[in-house]
């Protein structure tokens, strides 16, 4: 427990320092904004307000509720917070040190605070933790559809439908093989993840379509030549990025953090290998987006391309995980120039980055809404569905002050609190 807390405290320190210095931020949307301040076109105050507006809602409405539901910290809970902390303070030795201190306190607060909140929920008259765990249930199954959605957005609905049908068929074949125990090694049945295989199949379709869009321009790479100074800036700070990668990978090995909701829910169910596969698949999908924004802005991500999560999960111990995480970040940074040339050569792959992000967001919006509704209805039968439907539609009518991904989880928490009030008033008897 001491080591786990220490890792998250150090991660908070490093994350806030990197954000303060403009070396790395976790929010993909913030990455293009940071150079505006570094190069004098935006004040630090404006940057601070922008960071808060873009990240705070995701911490409160997305990161924390998903973490509570799965019992594992979603990395967004920490690194989006350190983005805000680091970018809210001016640059300078004293300010950077202060950012690190506040970031460390924040990391400790998130680690111990999550445990405190879950323990507090369990002591309420209506313990809704078990019901709230249903929030993430649809995420694992729904997430496998995102490559088909990305294909539909970029290459047309017909190709998206084909990828969806083949992925769905692959999933059902794996379910059949697992049920009949047709795959064995040394007489021991091998159980594969149906959702993991479907996700891999969808990603193969997406990458195949993307690579077919090949640039005919044989001149010097546009990305590599235009942004060479910004790539060199990232390479200059590779050492602190390696520290960040090491800490994240070690934390993933302890199973105290996860990089995305699907791997988090798989890990919370004890499906470690499936969680690692899902983590790697997500990382592959995000390479074009993260690489493009890093090359163009000179600002990296604390978790790099996010391969450090899968490496950490599969490592035999935290020390090996830390070494692997550091080496992975080092390799990623030094490959940026080659990735720039590759992305220029295959513009379809570069364009897929934003479509993948959009597809993932839409899938999570639907999955978390369904999960939130199921959880709320398990906590207070009947009223739960009514409350989530009302909260969602009122949020839409109000111009979406709460991001759609957060409506389901926050709504389920609200129903849990209301359910406890009803129990105290004698208006509701908890289901046995």
Automatic annotation (TrEMBL):
Keywords: Membrane, Transmembrane, Transmembrane helix. It comes from the Bacteria. The chain crosses the membrane at residues 6-26, 96-114, 134-153, 160-179, 191-211, 238-257, 277-307, 319-340, 366-394, 406-428. Pfam families: YhfT. The keyword Ligase does not apply. This is YhfT family protein. It comes from Sutcliffiella rhizosphaerae.
